[in-house]
Design brief:
This protein is an all-alpha fold and 320 residues long. The protein has helices spanning 16-21, 25-32, 36-59, 68-76, 78-86, 94-108, 112-124, 143-151, 153-167, 181-205, 209-233, 242-245, 253-258, 265-270, 279-286, 297-311; strands at 248-250, 293-295.
């Protein structure tokens, strides 16, 4: 019956494959049902909030600089929309998912076709030090590296470099199939051309709108996205079980809404085909089997920073 809890699971630890295998047919069908309506409602909420922060900046209202940080947080968290659309689960329509991914990727300097290949490898080899592309850059070894990573500048530099390399037709990333490389090069060219046109238009018009509505907010907002993303796998054990190598972080409804329910990240990795709107339901089914969790992002980073200060690069953080 849909919505039931697994019985007797607390006595027997299951890995993610066993958890998914125990789902009944009706339960599975309910979890996997995609929805244009729910996807549109989530996107409209995110864009509506972005419009609300953009308006005082655009109008130069009193105290308008105070809106730049929330504007930036909303912009950079469009990454979670890109992520969900990459899985083609945000909407019933794959065409809509592709369009939203293209727009979000453009705002974030993340080419969506390249990211799809990158992210597929991340899911296939989650937290495998040899094969997960997210681990190509090692985890911070001290507080200096931690602060540098959290600041977001390495991310922007890496994104710009990826676009330029891809546009030059020199993408040699192992996770990008040869058949996908022409499309990866084309999308990079389209994105670079778009940035060039916007920059030229802004200079011709003598307008700083893009700077204050997009560039500066995104730079200021990026540390908040880095803090969120570092909790997904940071200091998790290097094992094959997605319920252990991925962290679910218990947080507020507002953060879950902003991040398209991706704080339920172990659940997402255990069953990536589950749309964002069904993750709370899936969480209720599997919560007794989660092996790596934390009670809030602030607590995760306090423990992470404290561990780095005391031990440098060390063992995984124990579940919170």
């Amino acid at each position: 019956m849909p919505g039931r809890r697994f019985i007797g699971m607390a006595e027997q630890a299951l890995d993610h494959r066993a958890v998914v295998a125990r789902l009944g047919r009706e339960e599975r069908a309910a979890l996997l049902r995609r929805s244009d309506r729910l996807g549109a409602a989530q996107l409209a909420t995110h864009l509506g909030a972005l419009a609300a922060t953009s308006l005082p900046i655009a109008l130069g209202a009193p105290f308008w600089p105070l809106w730049i940080l929330p504007q930036g947080i909303l912009i950079v968290f469009l990454f979670t929309a890109l992520h969900e659309c990459t899985h083609k689960t945000a909407f019933s329509s794959e065409r809509v998912s592709r369009a939203v991914a293209a727009c979000a990727g453009f705002l974030l300097l993340i080419p969506p076709e390249w990211f799809r290949c990158f992210h597929a490898a991340h899911h296939r080899f989650t937290h495998d030090p040899e094969r997960d592309p997210e681990l190509a850059v090692p985890e911070p070894r001290g507080l200096g590296e931690y602060a540098w990573r959290l600041g977001g500048l390495p991310l922007w530099w890496g994104s710009a470099r990826t676009l330029l390399v891809n546009a030059a037709g020199r993408c040699r990333d192992a996770y990008v199939p040869a058949a996908s490389r022409p499309a990866v090069a084309r999308e990079a060219w389209v994105m670079l051309a778009g940035y060039g046109l916007l920059a030229a238009g802004s200079l011709a018009a003598g307008s700083g709108a893009l700077l204050w509505l997009w560039v500066v907010p995104a730079l200021l907002g990026q540390p908040f996205l880095r803090a969120y993303l570092m909790a997904e796998h940071g200091r998790c054990p290097h094992v094959a079980d997605m319920l252990a190598n991925t962290r679910t972080t218990y947080t507020t409804a507002l953060v879950r809404r902003l991040a398209w329910n991706m704080p339920y990240h172990a659940e997402h990795h255990a069953y990536p085909a589950v749309p964002f709107h069904a993750l709370p339901r899936f969480h209720q089914l599997v919560r007794d089997q989660l092996k790596t969790t934390e009670r809030g992002y602030g607590r995760f980073h306090r423990r992470y920073a404290s561990d780095l200060a005391c031990h440098g690069r060390g063992a995984e953080l124990l579940p919170g």
